[in-house]
Amino acid sequence: MARPNARLSSRSMAFVLAGGRGSRLKELTDNRAKPAVYFGGKTRIIDFALSNALNSGIRKMAIATQYKAHSLIRHCQRGWNFFRAERNEYLDILPASQRVAEDKWYIGTADAVAQNIDIVDSYGIEYILILAGDHIYKMDYEVMIQEHVDTNADVTVGCLTVPREEATAFGVMDVDEDLRITSFLEKPADPPGIPGDPDHALASMGIYVFKWSYLRELLLHDADDGDSKHDFGGDIIPYIVRNGRAQAHRYTDSCVKQSADTPAYWRDVGTVDAYWKANIDLTNFTPDLDLWDKNWPIWTYSESVPPAKFIHDEENRRGSAVSSLVSGGCIISGTEVRNSLLFTQVHTNSYSALDHSVLLPYVNVARHARLTKAVVDAGVQIPEGLVVGEDPEEDAKWFRVTDGGVTLITHDMIDRWNAAQ
C-alpha cells in the first residue's frame, strides 16, 4: 500500500479503456482500434492519455484492449517499455482474455475493470483514474485527483464546458452551485445549464476518479446485477449520483495550455472529418495544440529514421513544403506540399502535389499525382497520375468522400481503382 503522506499521483493508477473500434472513423479502423490510429505526425491517439498520466506523476498504468489490438499492443511495447518494476512503476496491457469465463469478453467499460480487480489490487494503490484512450488533450490529472480528495467525493467526473446546443451529443451533468452532480443525462434533448452560466453545459469527458476500495465494492455489486450493462456512464455513475456523492471537475481547471489566453484544447477525432481537421490544424501558424512544449511532452515510440529530405529545384519539379509538418524519413522529391501533414517515411515523386492532405506512415505518392483535402492510410501506394479532391463525384466511385468533402483513401480502395484502369 502506498504511504499515506506520499504525493497523490504516486498513490494512484491510470486505467485506460482502449478496446473500442471507433466505427465512425470508417476504414481507418478496419485494422486497428481507434486509440491506435496515428495522429499529429508521429504519435498515436492513446499517447495523449498515457503522456498526461506520466507527466502528472502517475507511474502505474493499465490498458484494457479488445478490438483488433495488435498494433496498439505493439506500439505500447515499443514506445512505452521504459517502466521499471524495481522503481514501483508498471504498465500492464490487459487484453480481453476470458479470465473470468471462457465465453466472457469485456461486455462494458466497468466490466473491463471488474475482470482485472486482482491486477489492480496488486498495485497497492489508493485512487484509480479511469481514462478513455481515444481523445486528444493535455491535462494534469493530479489537479483532478486533489479535487476528488478535497470534496470527499465518491466519484469525480471530468467535464467539458460546452454550449448548451452542442451538449445534446454528450452525457451531461446537472450540478448545483458546488458542482455536485444532481443528475446524469445521456444525450438530453434539452441539456441543463450550469448555475450562473445558463448558456453552457457540463459534458462528460469519460474521465473518472474513484477511491479504489470504494469502486472495487461497487464493481463486485454491479457484476452480480443481471440488469446492468456494466458501463461507467450508463450504470456506475448514475448509481453514485443517486446513492453517493458525485462531483464534477471542470477541464479548464486542469488543462495544460501554452498561456492563460490559449483556449482549452480537447478534441474527439472520432469522425474522418474531425480527424482530418485536427491534424491539418497543426499546420497553423500557432496551433491550439502545442506539440513543442518540453514541459508537457507527448511521449511515443520514435522510429529511428533519417531527417526529412527535399530534392529537385526546377520549374514544376521543386521539392518544397509550405505551412506543413513533415516527419523524419520523408523524401519530398520534386513535389509541392502545402498545408499538409506527412507522417514518418512518406515518399513523394516528381510533378506531384499535396494540398491540405494527411498522409500516414510509409505512403508513397507516384509522379503526377495530385491530392487535395485527403487522408491516406498507412502504406498506401498512390498510383501515377491519380487526381483526388477536384471531382467529388468521380472520387466517390472509388474512395470514401465525407460530408465535409474529405476523401479517405485505403489499400482496398486503391486496389479497386487499379483493377478498373
TrEMBL record:
EC numbers for this chain: 2.7.7.27
Site (Could play a key role in the communication between the regulatory and the substrate sites): residue numbering on this chain: 66, 105
Residues annotated as domain Glucose-1-phosphate adenylyltransferase/Bifunctional protein GlmU-like C-terminal hexapeptide: 306-409
Pfam families named in the record: Hexapep_GlmU, NTP_transferase
Source taxon at top rank: Bacteria
GO MF term list: ATP binding; glucose-1-phosphate adenylyltransferase activity
Catalytic activity: alpha-D-glucose 1-phosphate + ATP + H(+) = ADP-alpha-D-glucose + diphosphate
Pathway assigned in UniProt: Glycan biosynthesis; glycogen biosynthesis
Sites where the protein binds alpha-D-glucose 1-phosphate: 106, 171, 186-187, 204
Coiled coil: none
EC category name: transferase
Family: Belongs to the bacterial/plant glucose-1-phosphate adenylyltransferase family.
Subunit: Homotetramer.
Protein name: Glucose-1-phosphate adenylyltransferase
Species this protein is from: Tranquillimonas alkanivorans
